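ok, trying the design again with the full structure, not the truncated one.
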């Protein structure tokens, strides 16, 4: 335990029951990833992507490398920024913690990562240059990427949709290349994707990689590997033979979801709750968290996150193709699943389009029947005079019946859409109460526009004020618009609610690992 009673890795308060001087979250993370849990050494890999580790000068020799500074440390390995003496270039050197004393399971996993990455030569995969052992310590050297990872770059906020689609398109192409060479990544997440100075993404950390044509025995039944917030359901179930290319498609989709919404697909306070959601719950639609997300991009994202791997894109290449189509303003191939439509609800404009088409078909059918009826009436001269009024009444009656039926259906769909909005607003309130800035903004939008809740300028002003205080510019702009329509008393009441909320607001949660 540190002197101030805080976990040395995440800063959470420690209790007398804390194990090894770590909080339960760090202990659970280490166990989940099969990494040793040691006080004073993080089980979370703070690598060259995050910049969240000690960068004090080192300058010591390690074979052909001069180690300049430590830039990463985890339960299995440590990464240094280094200069390769023979070629006078900057590289990153990763070596096994404990050197030659590392356990056989960690040595094998370390070797798997090095061998898997060394087989891949792609501009968007961090390249491995040398794999070896120095004085009994296994190591490998790779490209040094001077830039943040996606998680650090976004700061847990949504980014522009086009930029997110471009990033994930590139990731999908690189992962498809790895699949073609028989390598699964199995741990795709924002913190495992670097962004260099030219705004190019590069995939790293193949520590959980698996060769498609072999079984190394590293993943035993009952052992969950990967980051829980981004795990596909088949990895949570821990059954052999169920993890394949579709699992990496899920990982790419979870990255897209994160970039669009600023949060993982599934969020909960406790690890078992997260895994339960991964297995059984549907993710909140991205458009409910970020209304600027186009419907087509939402369909692509949710198709990647299907529970059944067979309902996802068959390959990462097809995911990249659909994103390319959207970026080029062409129709995408993916279609919403039944689950997506159940969550989304048919919108009123869509129902009205169906009603209009049905009405046209009904009129055509009536006119066809009318021709037959007129012919029959012509043969019945005694009632010819009644033909016109009779036909008009029949057409009017059928048209009215069709209109009433379509109106009833549209009304049902409207109520379903309102229910979906109400559920979304309820979710946003729970997340907003926990200090989620994006949820606070979206809840303010709901109150300002009356989506899922009755319009309330005071509540709208309160939540938009809280979001803008965290630096969200669009929240500040909308708050100014709402404020112009409020009375002085309403503004004062909103400010009072903000003051009451802020003292009890929980600290913003740390980065998901």
């Amino acid at each position: 335990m540190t002197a101030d009673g805080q976990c040395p890795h995440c800063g959470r308060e420690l209790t007398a029951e804390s194990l090894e001087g770590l909080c339960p979250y760090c202990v659970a993370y280490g166990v989940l990833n099969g990494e040793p849990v040691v006080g004073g050494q993080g089980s979370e890999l703070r690598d060259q992507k995050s910049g969240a580790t000690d960068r004090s000068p080192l300058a010591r020799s390690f074979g052909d490398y001069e180690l300049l500074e430590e830039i990463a440390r985890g339960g299995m390995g440590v990464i240094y920024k280094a200069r390769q003496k023979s070629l006078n270039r900057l590289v990153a050197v990763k070596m096994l913690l404990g050197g030659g004393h590392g356990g056989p399971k960690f040595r094998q996993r370390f070797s798997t990562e090095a061998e898997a990455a060394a087989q891949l030569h792609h501009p968007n995969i961090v390249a491995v240059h040398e794999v070896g052992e120095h004085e009994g310590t296994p190591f490998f050297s790779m490209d040094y990427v001077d830039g943040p990872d996606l998680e650090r770059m976004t700061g847990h906020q949504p980014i522009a949709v086009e930029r997110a689609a471009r990033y994930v398109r590139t990731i999908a192409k690189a992962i498809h290349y790895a699949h073609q060479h028989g390598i699964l990544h199995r741990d795709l997440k924002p913190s495992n994707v670097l962004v260099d100075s030219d705004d190019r993404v590069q995939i790293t950390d193949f520590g959980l990689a698996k060769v498609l044509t072999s079984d190394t025995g590293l993943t035993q039944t009952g052992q969950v590997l990967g980051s829980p917030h981004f795990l596909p359901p088949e990895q949570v179930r821990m059954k052999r033979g169920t993890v394949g290319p579709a699992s990496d498609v899920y990982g790419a989709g979870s990255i897209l979801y994160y970039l669009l919404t600023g949060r993982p697909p599934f969020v909960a306070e406790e690890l078992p709750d997260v895994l339960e959601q991964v297995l059984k719950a549907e993710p909140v639609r991205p458009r409910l968290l970020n209304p600027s997300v186009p419907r087509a991009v939402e369909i692509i994202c949710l198709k990647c996150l299907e529970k059944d791997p067979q309902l996802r894109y068959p390959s990462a290449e097809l995911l990249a193709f659909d994103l390319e189509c959207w970026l080029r303003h062409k129709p995408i191939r993916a279609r919403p699943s039944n689950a997506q439509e159940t969550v989304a609800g048919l919108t009123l404009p869509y129902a009205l389009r169906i009603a209009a088409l049905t009405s046209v078909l009904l009129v055509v059918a009536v006119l066809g029947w009318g021709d037959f009826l007129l012919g029959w009436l012509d043969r019945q001269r005694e009632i010819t005079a009644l033909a016109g009024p009779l036909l008009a009444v029949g057409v009017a009656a059928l048209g009215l019946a069709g209109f009433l039926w379509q109106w009833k259906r549209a009304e049902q769909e409207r109520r379903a859409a309102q229910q979906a909005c109400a559920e979304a607003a309820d979710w946003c309130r729970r997340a907003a109460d926990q200090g989620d800035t994006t949820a606070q903004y979206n809840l303010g939008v709901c109150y300002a526009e009356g989506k899922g809740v009755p319009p309330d300028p005071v509540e709208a002003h309160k939540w938009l004020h809280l979001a803008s205080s965290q630096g969200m510019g669009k929240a500040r702009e909308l708050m100014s618009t709402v404020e112009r329509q409020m009375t002085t008393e309403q503004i004062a009441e909103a400010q009072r609610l903000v003051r009451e909320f802020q003292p009890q607001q929980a600290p913003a949660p740390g980065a998901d690992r």
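Keeping the full-length input from now on. The two ends are 21 Å apart (CA to CA).
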